[in-house]
């Protein structure tokens, strides 16, 4: 896991489900950031672009992140890597990355 990044203060990462309103493309992402102000529904800070038509989209559903190994929100496993290495982060479609606030370190 990445060390705490103070630039992310006031944000929480979530798992989001997306559907493009223009072309109906669907996808999921673990790189969705919401404001952490205790309000519901949570306010998404950055959307993502659809890979087919480049329409800016926000998720229609959010979940707290869960570990892919133990399936808990507060992880109890010893593994250091919790993401799927076969699925790289698409920074070219991520509006947070495009704003200059990179989600992942290269």
Automatic annotation (TrEMBL):
Its main location: cytoplasm. InterPro entries: Zar1, ZAR1/RTP1-5-like_Znf-3CxxC. GO terms for molecular function: mRNA binding; zinc ion binding. GO terms for cellular component: cytoplasm. It is found in: Cytoplasm. The keyword Zinc-finger applies. This is 3CxxC-type domain-containing protein. It comes from Patella caerulea.
